[in-house]
Design brief:
Layout: H1 3-20, E1 40-45, H2 51-66, E2 70-75, H3 80-90, E3 97-100, H4 109-117, E4 121-125, E5 137-141, H5 143-157, E6 167-171, H6 179-197, E7 201-202, H7 225-239, E8 247-249, H8 253-265, E9 276-277, H9 284-291, E10 297-300, H10 303-318, E11 340-343, E12 346-349, H11 353-358
Parallel strand pairs: 1-2, 1-3, 3-4, 4-5, 5-11, 6-7, 6-8, 8-9
Antiparallel strand pairs: 10-12
The structure holds beta-D-glucopyranose.
Length: 370
């Protein structure tokens, strides 16, 4: 690309970023008026093993590069130590901003103190970073609402408000070191606990946390599909005999996938007493499972919106503009309330795949076998 073409492309990219956060504080101007950005942005994602983080990383990197920034994108293999090393390495460079989706939200206090010393602005991405004053902003979806949507879906589909039941429920939770996992569980359990207490929902495995605070006891480390499969198989073997599971609270799609595999191995058949299973992320294979009646719903968090929002926040922070947030109450990380931009999650079922995932271009029909 010639220097002039590069500048025009970067100016157009910068205008797009301003559009992503267009509201009170930023008025997108004509391309000619936009400052072409420069600076180095570090992006730390937790793992490549889950579809969504690859998409998140690629989109964020692409948006920032189009706007004129240099980027350093790293994935940490779900290993908290590896992520800290990656962050330390990045801090050897002349970084302006670090965008971090942490593996372990409570283990970054030391490395973020280094970032603060170097004047690097830190934005937590999707997952909150806890126990440090050195995180400046947070871009996320409403994680508590994700759990509520899953809980409400179960209440509605099983007609619990009308007194239906008893139904056999198996609840799962996500990685114990992921702050989001706590919020997903709390949202769901705040809806479901009353039906467990009154006996409309029965948990034969006994793995019903006594309260929201005990959620980590049923947490699946690293959000591993294989571990979820093994756990579901154990519960079926230990507690079911000839009884059947009616409903599984799965906080995301990777767990739902493992749970589905365990059910297939145990002889469950789609459409014939197959349990209601929840999920989150709208991963490709889970959307296919919804079409095949193996998963009842997923909570879709359009990662394009989150990456767009985060890229806009980076741009504002680098340029010293006011960073757009819409929540300055909810996300206390143990050291401070982190100013946050929060996006709304959306329920997707088999019937709404077209109107949501396909019509928005998130997937093409052929991506999900349609
Ligand atoms: C994210 C989910 C994801 C999970 C596993 C959570 O922090 O919010 O979208 O499914 O991590 O990677």
């Amino acid at each position: 690309m010639s220097q002039i073409t590069k500048l025009i492309a970067a100016a157009a990219g910068a205008a797009l970023l301003l559009g992503a956060t267009a509201c009170a504080d930023s008025t997108p101007g004509a391309v000619g008026e936009v400052d072409v950005a420069s600076g180095l942005i570090g992006i730390a994602m937790p793992t490549k093993s889950l579809e969504r983080w690859n998409k998140d990383g690629a989109r964020l990197e692409g948006l920032l590069q189009d706007a004129g920034y240099d980027t350093n994108l790293q994935f940490a293999d779900n290993n908290a130590g590896q992520q800290i090393t990656q962050l330390q390495d990045m801090l050897q460079q002349d970084l302006d901003v670090l965008v971090i989706a942490p593996v372990d939200g409570s283990s970054l206090t030391g490395v973020l103190a280094e970032a603060k010393d170097k004047g690097v602005i830190v934005i937590a991405y999707d997952r909150l970073i806890n126990d440090t004053g050195d995180v400046d902003y947070y871009a996320t979806f409403d994680n508590y609402e994700v759990g509520k949507l899953q809980g409400r879906f179960i209440v509605e589909k099983l007609d619990l408000r009308a007194g239906a039941g008893p139904f056999n429920l198996e609840p799962f939770a996500g990685a114990p070191d992921d702050n989001n996992a706590k919020l997903f569980f709390a949202g769901a359990w705040d809806v479901l606990a009353e039906y467990v207490s009154n006996g409309q929902l029965v948990v034969p495995s006994g793995k019903a946390p006594a309260s929201n605070a005990d959620w980590a006891g049923i947490g699946i480390p690293g959000w591993s599909a294989d571990d979820a499969q093994a756990e579901m198989a154990d519960r079926l073997n230990a507690a079911y005999g000839t009884a059947k599971v009616d409903v599984v609270l799965s906080p995301n799609d990777s767990l739902a996938l493992g749970i589905t595999k365990a059910l297939l191995v145990a002889g469950y058949v789609e459409g014939v007493g197959w349990p209601l299973i929840t999920g989150q992320d709208a991963d490709q294979i889970n959307v296919e499972n919804m079409i095949a009646d193996r998963q009842a719903m997923t909570v879709w968090k359009d990662t394009r919106m989150l990456a767009d929002q985060a890229a806009g926040m980076v741009d504002q922070a680098v340029k010293g503009s006011k960073v757009t947030v819409n929540d300055e109450i909810t996300y206390h990380n143990g050291a401070k309330v982190v100013p946050t931009y929060q996006l709304p999650p959306v329920v997707v079922t088999k019937d709404s795949i077209k109107g949501t995932l396909l019509d928005s271009g998130f997937y093409k029909p052929e991506d999900v076998g349609l």
